Amino acid sequence: MATKKITKKEKERIHKILELLDKEYTTDIRCFLNHENPWQLLIATILSAQCTDDRVNIVTKDLFKKYRSLEDFANAKQSELEKDIHSTGFYRNKAKNIIECTRKLITDFNGEVPEDIESLTSLAGVGRKTANVIRGNIYNEPSIVVDTHVKRISKKLGLTKHEDPEKIEMDLMDVLPKDNWIRYNIQIITLGRSICTARSPKCEECFLQHLCKSSLVPVERRDSKDA
């Protein structure tokens, strides 16, 4: 895959963004979805579609006590599982996908969550986003997860102009060093929840405001802070 050509000045700007993210949020890698093993994270990530991680964690706290194995999920009654995950939204599709996904893990992958993206995306309910969560958090395989925060803030930072998550993923893979991929996801999600919120971004409080291409802080104020 050809690497996107960027200017020296842009490379320096991106380097500064990553340095400040590391300084503010450290380089620690942590997953916001509670889990004890790979298949629990896979199910939690399926549940996280159009749902907050906090809500998923509330649901899985009891869910993983009730369904203690892949076999429990594979043999679950869909109507009952729908009730168990109702508050995560889109519960009918999610319940159906979880049952089909766990059955395929048992029959095709010997009960193991696969590592390669082709096998992962062959599972019901698993797209590139979910696959990359597994690859990054379970197998430490450098990957970029394009969720709503990463999509929105990466565009604000001028790292992509696309709307399609897969194209955004490719853009970020081109401009970000591979060693930063996993923690960039986590850092940007944290930024999106605390400062660069969708409804009311706190640009004046943001440590990246002087590097952001869509900051609401007036240019002259940003320049004066850099002086």
The tally of domains stands at 2
- Total helical segments: 12
What distance lies between the first and last C-alpha atoms, to the nearest angstrom?
39 Å
Which stretches are poorly predicted, pLDDT < 50 over at least 5 residues?
A: 219-227
Overall mean pLDDT stands at 92
Identify the CATH homologous superfamily of the largest domain.
Answer: Helix-hairpin-Helix base-excision DNA repair enzymes (C-terminal)
Catalytic activity: 2'-deoxyribonucleotide-(2'-deoxyribose 5'-phosphate)-2'-deoxyribonucleotide-DNA = a 3'-end 2'-deoxyribonucleotide-(2,3-dehydro-2,3-deoxyribose 5'-phosphate)-DNA + a 5'-end 5'-phospho-2'-deoxyribonucleoside-DNA + H(+)
Organism: Mobilisporobacter senegalensis
Domain HhH-GPD: 47-194
Pfam families: EndIII_4Fe-2S, HHH, HhH-GPD
Give an overview of the whole structure.
The structure is a single chain. With 227 residues, the chain is an all-alpha fold. The protein has 2 domains: 8-29 and 145-226, Endonuclease Iii, domain 2; 38-137, Orthogonal Bundle (Endonuclease III, domain 1), CATH 1.10.340.30. The protein has 12 helices and no strands. The protein has helices spanning 8-25, 38-47, 53-66, 70-74, 78-84, 91-109, 117-120, 128-137, 148-156, 165-175, 181-194, 219-226. Helix 5 (78-84) crosses helix 6 (91-109). It is elongated. The model is unreliable at 219-227 (pLDDT under 50). Its EC number is 4.2.99.18. Its cofactor is [4Fe-4S] cluster. One of its GO terms (biological process) is base-excision repair, AP site formation. [4Fe-4S] cluster binds at residues 196, 203, 206, 212. It catalyses: 2'-deoxyribonucleotide-(2'-deoxyribose 5'-phosphate)-2'-deoxyribonucleotide-DNA = a 3'-end 2'-deoxyribonucleotide-(2,3-dehydro-2,3-deoxyribose 5'-phosphate)-DNA + a 5'-end 5'-phospho-2'-deoxyribonucleoside-DNA + H(+).
